[in-house]
Design goal:
This protein has 102 residues and is α/β, with parallel strands linked by helices. Helices cover 27% and strands 20% of the residues. It has a 4-stranded parallel beta sheet, with helices on one face. The chain is globular, with a radius of gyration of 12 Å. The protein binds S-adenosylmethionine.
Length: 102
């Protein structure tokens, strides 16, 4: 699948990290500052069902929007967690393969 939920597109990103990250099926990826989830969904399409993508954002509004988008898009391999990435990233040590941010 190459599409993402339309409401995940905020148009505020400044790059295309997924194009350079060489993401493979089965990997676990973290997206810092995930917003409404666009990069998470792009990654989820690449890691497929055997992988997982975790989006981190500090605002309840963005987390809610991202979770709604995941539900409406039928994504079962994504999760959105609350956290201030400048303080403490809510991810265990040595639990992910790749970190991206846009
Ligand atoms: C410019 S938006 C980009 C969102 C998304 N990556 C995209 O490309 O559409 C930045 C996002 O990072 C979040 N953010 C900014 N500072 C943060 C911090 N210190 N910790 C966690 N999230 C943060 C904001 O809430 C916002 O959703």
């Amino acid at each position: 699948m190459n599409t993402v939920p339309e409401k995940s597109i905020l148009g505020v990103g400044c790059g295309a990290p997924v194009n350079f990250a060489n993401i493979k099926e089965g990997e676990t990826v973290v997206d810092l500052g995930s917003g409404a989830g666009i990069e998470v969904f792009l990654c989820a399409n690449k890691v497929r069902e055997s992988g997982k993508v975790i989006g981190i954002d500090m605002t309840d509004e963005m987390l809610q929007r991202a979770r709604n988008n995941a539900e409406q898009g039928g994504y079962s391999n994504v999760e959105f967690r609350k956290g201030d990435i400048e303080q403490k990233i809510p991810i265990g040590d040595n639990t992910v393969d790749l970190v991206i941010s846009n």
